[in-house]
Design goal:
Elements (H helix, E strand, L loop, with lengths): L3 H5 L5 H4 L15 E5 L40 H8 L44 H19 L2 H9 L2 E5 L2 H8 L7 H4 L2 H21 L4 E5 L18 H24 L4 E5 L1 H4 L4 H4 L43 H15 L13 H5 L2
Parallel strand pairs: 1-2, 2-3, 3-4
Helix pairs in contact: 3-12, 4-5, 8-9
The structure holds 2-acetamido-2-deoxy-beta-D-glucopyranose (6 copies).
């Protein structure tokens, strides 16, 4: 079948652009932002873990001020850009190093290789699964209670924060699609596996709610059958994208249930496969299935070869390595997240995040 990514590149990025309004300056639009997820948001939590899923070396970070940080892309991730759009002066710090008053503005728990399921990614080495990320959040909450004076003040603070959760990619890439390491594809049909994952995800999102989260963006999966690691030459694997669609559909109905059943809950589902629905001629993104960097075939398979020279124009590629999108694609996801979560706000543009950066080659 033809590459589905091509057909996903449909809605013009201009439709994003027209939603953008005035320059917003001053206080961030939310006081705090907490991030749960995998390598799409990890900003250094894996750096000191024993794992091949860490990338604190060049060419990662080639477009990031200060170079490599552990981010799995050339520049900023979706959550960095969202933090900028929200008016935060700094990026949300990784749990591994966040200390002091800074945690009042949020913490990033994301970990490369991690999944909804506890065992996901274990063939890569250490990683911080979603259950453990939630335990780490509980540690942060105790620290916030100390900083603010008591538990009830911490709870009050946590209710005002924004949360994003994006999990599940590794439950396919580093679990279900790896029968040599994991039994799940023999135990479950794709439909059953998506149901089992969604059940666990439901418990986890309810824990987050019980910790005080009220406004939560839940990111579905992108077209995993189109990542260079899974793609069949220049073709997306439709079967894998079908798995993704089944999962995304179940998470969408989970989000509806949570909003229906939990008082004051505002869960919002975002489908990144729709985010990639960009007309390449208007976005300048022309290189679809070829990674920008030269990727390893041995240790750290699919990640950039350390110290290799990446492609010279990153903004024309969808993928930086064989798994992870470039900053420009992260920017599109961030813009969609922002618009979905704050539909009535004008779009803040500051000196660091300009639309040109999001839309031009
Ligand atoms: C993950 O699963 C293992 C084995 O079942 C268990 O020992 C461990 O406590 C679990 N970790 C978390 C965070 O649930
Ligand atoms: C969260 O941490 C507190 C200690 O600060 C502990 O009493 C509580 O059981 C923890 N909650 C969960 C759900 O692990
Ligand atoms: C927490 O601290 C605030 C401000 O000091 C106080 O008004 C409130 O009664 C305290 N709550 C509890 C449960 O101790
Ligand atoms: C890869 O593409 C070729 C050519 O279209 C096709 O014959 C083959 O079945 C595909 N392999 C997989 C695993 O989808
Ligand atoms: C949540 O609400 C849905 C209706 O949206 C209902 O069908 C479902 O049973 C409820 N689930 C729970 C656990 O309360
Ligand atoms: C956005 O504005 C519309 C119309 O004014 C209103 O009905 C809606 O509740 C607003 N949504 C949010 C999230 O504030």
């Amino acid at each position: 079948m033809a590459c589905e990514l091509e057909t996903w590149f449909k809605i013009s990025i201009l439709s994003l652009v027209v939603n953008l309004g005035q320059l917003a300056v001053g206080e961030p639009q939310v006081p705090c932002y907490f991030i749960f997820g995998d390598s799409l948001v990890d900003n250094g939590n894996n750096n000191d873990l024993q794992t091949s899923a860490k990338v604190n070396y060049p060419p990662y970070g080639v477009d990031f001020p200060g170079g490599p940080t552990g981010r799995f892309t050339n520049g900023r991730t979706r959550v960095d850009i969202l933090a900028e759009l929200l008016g935060f002066e700094d990026y949300i710090p990784p749990f591994a190093t966040a200390r002091g008053n800074g945690i009042l503005k949020g913490v990033n728990y994301g970990s490369g290789g991690a999944g909804i399921r506890n065992e996901t990614g274990q063939q890569l080495g250490d990683r911080i699964c979603l259950d453990t990320q939630l335990e780490n959040h509980n540690v942060t909450i105790s620290r916030i209670a100390v900083l603010l004076g008591n538990e009830s003040l911490a709870e009050e603070h946590l209710r005002t924060c924004l949360y994003t959760v994006g999990m599940g990619s590794n439950d396919y890439i580093n679990n279900y699609l790896r029968p040599e390491f994991y039994p799940t594809s023999r135990l479950y049909t794709p439909e059953q596996y998506a149901a089992v994952l969604t059940e666990q995800y439901s418990r986890q999102l309810r824990i987050l709610y019980n910790y005080g989260a009220r406004k939560v963006g839940v990111l579905g999966l992108g077209p995993i059958g189109c990542i260079p690691f899974e793609a069949n030459g220049s073709l997306c694997v439709g079967r894998i994208n079908d798995y993704v669609n089944v999962f995304n559909k179940k998470v969408l109905s989970l989000v509806n249930d949570l909003n229906h059943n939990l008082t004051d809950a505002h869960f919002i589902f975002i489908d990144p496969s729709r985010v990639l629905s960009v007309d390449p001629s208007s976005s300048g993104i022309t290189i679809l299935l070829t990674p920008c960097c030269k990727v390893s075939t041995g240790y750290g398979k699919g990640q950039c070869i350390p110290h290799s020279v990446p492609c010279s124009i990153r903004a024309t590629s969808v993928f930086f390595d064989a798994f992870h999108p470039t900053e420009i694609v992260h920017g599109l996801v961030a813009a969609m997240l922002y618009i979905a979560m704050f539909p009535n706000n004008t779009y803040p543009i500051d000196s660091r995040t300009t639309l040109t950066q999001l839309s031009a080659p």
